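Sequence of DUF962 domain-containing protein (Moraxella caviae).
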Amino acid sequence: MMLRQLFRSAKPLDVWLKEYATSHKNATNKRIHYVCVPIIFLTIVALLTHISWWLAVGISVLALWFYVRLSVSLAVAMLVFIVLCFGAALLPVNAWFWAAVFAIAWVGQFVGHKIEGAKPSFFEDLQFLLIGPAWVAMNVLGKTPKTA
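Predicted 3D structure, token representation.
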């Protein structure tokens, strides 16, 4: 039983995505999320590399483990994105640049939720901070479940 829990999430990916989608129905909010969620993810990776590349790699491995437990294909897509984020982290800019971009992207997210009229999903469960990038990735790949 413990081994199964180690390798499989208690909640399936399609359930996570449907729950996330309930507060992301407005077209403008969706477009804002398609831009801001990847930027936030990128800036976190970049900021972590400014602290320690090992820390950034370690946290990335933990995030990938979360994704593997949901879907191997999702984990592969996120691995590609994480590698791209590490590449972008090599840009010759300082941590203040990444922090400013991070803050601007979060402002965008909250504007999107104001337009939507719904609070961000992570207010209910912090795991939605990792589901947001998965939701964007699955939308880009055309693999999101239909919501009622």
